[in-house]
Specification:
about 300 residues, alpha/beta, 5-stranded parallel β-sheet, about 35% helix, single chain
């Protein structure tokens, strides 16, 4: 396997290459004064399995076009199989046409990758796993979703949160809390979050939970503005939770998200390295999970 860490995921790509006992292949990359990206990857790739590692966190559009350029070029250079590792898959939250006339952006991104000849796509904790099945069956690309929750829960279990209650801030993410509970063992549940499709406003219904005097962890796929996480933490603290951790796979932390979450009462913030962030917290690498998945794919 030849591993090519893209400009958005150099460190993660290097760790994945190390885990596969190979040397990462460099990419020449620069941004022209008008904002366009230049990409050059190095031959020989003929008849090789090529793994491109490129997350698509902000700036999403730029990161996506770079991903498309690398995938297309690898194919043009004769790679026999192209596997894209895109831990954070941008545009995956728009996983259908919620309002008539809206662009179905998840479908668009997958269609482009498939049309470029990408054989496999590895993503981490995609917003709605079921949405992948629908696009997967329409295109030739195969999509594989891995989860960082066991790594996050494992860390918290060893660091003061054993027996903690696992919460997801909305019903759609209950599988994350459930997976975490298999390690933490303190029960799991969810709050009910609704988002106004027109204004984007969030409303959270805080249910009564048995968390008084206990530790709790809120698990979500993404922290972006921090609003969802902050409200969930306030809900838990308001019911007397003693110590609360905020955990997510994709630490986008836009604007003052970190401050909002800390002010809401988070005692610990933990996330994976699916995207690069300057947020202070515990970072857990997903490289070993990606390596395991790659080994599984090539041995199939
Ligand atoms: C959406 O439902 C996702 O699972 C996250 O809850 C959401 O993206 C978090 O966004 P924010 O941090 O802006 O509230």
């Amino acid at each position: 396997m030849i591993v090519i860490p893209g400009p958005a995921s150099r460190e993660l790509g290097e760790q994945i290459a190390k885990g596969l006992s190979t040397v990462p292949r460099a990419v020449d990359h620069r941004i022209f004064p008008d904002g366009e990206s230049y990409i050059k990857i190095y031959p020989e790739l003929k008849n090789e399995t090529v793994v491109i590692v490129q997350t698509t966190a902000p700036s999403q559009d730029q990161r996506l076009i770079q991903l498309f350029m690398m995938a297309r070029t690898a194919k043009a250079l004769g790679a026999s199989r192209v596997i894209c590792v895109v831990p954070y898959l941008a545009y995956s939250r728009q996983d259908k046409m919620f309002l008539e006339g809206e662009a179905y952006s998840l479908d668009l991104v997958i269609k482009i990758l498939s049309d470029l000849g990408v054989d496999d796509l590895i993503v981490a904790d995609v917003h709605n796993e079921a949405s992948l099945d629908k696009v997967d069956e329409r295109y030739s690309i195969r999509i594989h979703n891995i989860s960082g929750v066991s790594l996050l829960a494992g860390y918290l279990n060893e660091n003061g949160f054993k027996g903690a209650y696992s919460l997801s801030p909305d019903k759609g993410a209950i599988h994350l809390a459930q997976a975490a509970d298999s390690l933490l063992g303190g029960g799991f549940g969810y709050f009910e979050k609704t988002r106004d499709r027109r204004t984007g406003e969030i409303e959270m219904k805080v249910k009564d939970l048995e968390v008084s005097g206990r530790k709790a962890v809120v698990f979500d796929d993404i922290i972006s503005s921090g609003g969802t996480m902050a409200r969930a933490i306030e809900g838990l603290k308001g019911q007397g939770a003693d110590k609360v951790a905020a955990a997510c796979t994709h630490a986008l932390f836009m604007g003052d998200a970190e401050r909002r979450i800390r002010e809401a009462g988070a005692d610990v913030i933990a996330f994976t390295d699916s995207v690069k962030t300057s947020t202070e917290g515990v970072t857990i690498t997903i490289a070993p999970l990606v390596v395991t998945e790659l080994n599984r794919l090539v041995s199939e």
